[in-house]
From TrEMBL:
Name by which UniProt lists this protein: Tol-Pal system protein TolB
Gene Ontology cellular-component annotations: periplasmic space
Oligomer status and interactors: The Tol-Pal system is composed of five core proteins: the inner membrane proteins TolA, TolQ and TolR, the periplasmic protein TolB and the outer membrane protein Pal. They form a network linking the inner and outer membranes and the peptidoglycan layer.
UniProt signal peptide: 1-27
Record gene name: tolB
A single BP term in Gene Ontology: protein import
Compartmental location: Periplasm
Length: 445
């Protein structure tokens, strides 16, 4: 397998506080907050004057960082940017007093101000967030220090801080997605592993297209990727180190095929499917010792295993009842409990980072859906419907799901989409060409 392009280097960002303690809003209607529910949410209007360049080399960075922050927030469907043409007040200095009445006049509820300086191989980004109607700053101001190569990460960090302070949810913008980049005609599709920012930017290719690759998965720390490759002529699971780009084959056994791998929460164990003699069961592998343990033993197909966040359980799909359904068992194996109960077939289950939901693919009445259910199978909710939706993956905060959608017909193409867990804000993720099998990374350090 030829590796010909490395991951873009990621520099740990220095973070600093530059104002006093957190100030709570005292607005009449309470602190500025979006509560994410299953109902329709009116996007919160925010103003983001272009960040101020504090020296001659910072102008382009200030403009680009401002654009990425606005796109991150608006892309959630929870926020609506008020265009600069509507601004009454102009921010000419980062430390200038806030003209709250001017921002109230255009119905801005949140105001984000910031500044950027650039010198040599260092960029400094700082910002403040204000609750316009209470006339208060929300939380401490933050400062991020990085290199020119990390300016987009700093923009995502700012957007993450704003998002978390207003919604109370965890951040997810400063993350990456590994996926299968596709090219060529549908009946001779070439596939290679690629990685990108969550929004489709900064694509890097990890393998060439000499072998079919499937189902990449990040480790809990983001420094390793599991995937399935047909390099040997049969599906086998491989482990890639994202720093050295070294690749090793795992769990090789003569006369078997291995696929659908996924890490345990501590990153020390891999759970996967192994096919031998026409029967497929779930196994786990200790990465350090190489020892394997069989977890299921049934005359049926058991695949797509996924650990619960605490590592105590595994959810998987099985056709032991006659059709594909979702089951949960102890991480040590043993008896399994079926949790899917609706009409149709269920597959590709994956536990959310918070452990509150399991996402899945459902096929019923000629349509495919991405859905979520509680870990006991209750509260099933379908989020999408199309000719072919499959393979959900969770954002680090457990509020957004990315998946693959394929269009119908001989010329059908696969694309990546995202949707929040209430079923709102279905959006296509921009990629350079057809794409499938997305897997979200943890939040970057």
């Amino acid at each position: 397998m030829t590796l010909f392009r490395t991951l873009a280097p990621v520099l740990a960002l220095a973070v600093g506080l530059f104002v006093g303690g957190t100030v709570q809003s005292n607005a009449q209607d309470g602190p500025l907050r979006i509560t994410i529910t299953d109902g329709v949410i009116e996007p919160l209007p925010f103003a983001l004057p272009q960040f101020i360049p504090e020296n001659g080399g910072a102008g382009d960075y200030a403009a680009q960082i401002s654009q990425v922050i606005a796109a991150d927030l608006s892309g959630t469907g929870l926020f609506r940017e008020i265009p600069a043409s509507a601004h009454i007040s102009r921010v000419s200095s980062f430390d200038a007093p806030v003209a709250y009445e001017d921002w109230k006049a255009i119905n801005a509820q949140a105001l984000i101000t910031g500044a950027v300086s650039a010198s040599g191989d260092q960029i400094v980004v700082k910002f403040r967030l204000f609750d316009v109607y209470s006339g208060q700053q929300m939380g401490d101001g933050l400062q991020f220090v990085g290199t020119p190569a990390t300016w987009r990460r700093m923009a995502h960090k700012v957007a993450d801080a704003v998002y978390s302070r207003i919604t109370g949810e965890g951040p997810y913008f400063d993350s990456r997605v590994v996926f299968v980049s596709e090219s060529g005609p549908k009946n001779q599709r070439q596939k290679r592993l690629a990685v990108m920012d969550y929004d489709g930017a900064n694509v890097a290719y990890l393998t060439d297209s000499s072998s079919i690759v499937l189902a990449p998965r990040f480790s809990p720390t983001g420094n390793q990727i599991l995937f399935t490759s047909y390099e040997s002529g049969f599906p086998r699971i491989y482990l890639m180190d994202t720093g050295s780009m070294q690749v090793q084959s795992l769990a090789q056994q003569e006369g078997t095929m291995t696929f659908a791998p996924r890490f345990s929460p501590d990153g020390r164990t891999v759970v996967f499917s192994l096919e031998r003699g026409g029967n497929t069961d779930i196994y786990q592998l200790d990465i350090g010792s190489g020892q394997t343990q069989q977890l299921t033993n049934a005359p049926s197909i058991e695949t797509a295993p996924s650990f619960s966040p605490d590592g105590s359980q595994i959810v998987f799909e099985s056709d032991r009842s006659g059709t594909q359904q979702i089951y949960v068992m102890s991480s040590g194996g043993g008896d399994a409990t079926r949790i899917s109960g609706g009409a149709g077939r269920y597959s590709t289950p994956v536990w959310s980072p918070q452990g509150d939901y399991i996402a899945f693919t459902k096929q019923n009445a000629g349509r495919f859906h991405i859905g979520v259910m509680r870990s006991d199978g209750s509260e099933e909710r379908l989020l999408t419907a199309s000719f072919l939706d499959e393979g959900p993956t969770w954002a680090p905060n457990g509020r957004v799901i990315m998946f693959m959608r394929e269009s119908a017909g001989a010329g059908g193409q696969s694309s990546l989409f995202s949707v929040d867990i209430s079923g709102r804000n279905l959006r296509q993720v921009t990629t350079e060409g057809p794409a499938s099998d997305p897997a979200w990374s943890p939040l970057l350090p």
